[in-house]
Design brief:
- About 45% of the residues lie in helices and about 15% in strands.
- The chain has eight helices and seven strands.
- It has a five-stranded parallel sheet, with helices on both faces. The chain has a two-stranded antiparallel ribbon with strand order 5-6.
- Helix 2 crosses helix 3.
- The chain starts with a strand and ends in a 9-residue tail after the last helix.
Length: about 220
Amino acid sequence: MRKYVIMGVQGSGKGTQAKMLREDLDLAHISVGDIFRWHVRQHTKIGAQVKRAMAAGELVGDDLVEEVVRRRLGIHDWNYGFIIDGFPRNGRQAEFFMESYDIDAVIHLELPDDEVRRRVLSRRLCPNCGMDYNLIADRPEVEGRCDICGHGLITRADDTPEALEARLTDYHEKTRPVLELFRRKEVVHDVDGRPPVDEVQSAIRKTLGLSGYRADD
């Protein structure tokens, strides 16, 4: 059983890399961001709290994040392990996590702030079906329209320049220290998040000692 955490600033590709590992290793991919976005689309009480935080460019409160993670891991559908992204984001969350689970590795995707801004401010979302787009590398066939359902695309509430700057500041002040906590256990693997997706995935596989993967598979 493999239990991984993937960390990196917003726009570093955590979700994409986690999904690639999930598909090949039969892991449960637990994305806190995806869970919260589902609640927002379903107009739940949790969704209302998340929406307020996103609009203000803030992180969701620790109590709510820990509750969501605990519930998700409590489903126990991860027979071969899991990879979690979007958590932990601060020292309290990291301590909660380390007390409950033995982590095999923390994958840290490194990305300069300038590249984060370029990527994040190019993202678009379909509010109807949830499909993600990026105007740099994954443009819709019809400008401003979803390829799947034809709905108009929007910019996420937390993808504005102001919200992004607040999140970058929050990341450097609160999340980076989390890496130092994990480094004490010698489980952190730093990977350059700038190359193409397949090259980043190959670098992750190499640093984790996983065999049988080629970038052109």
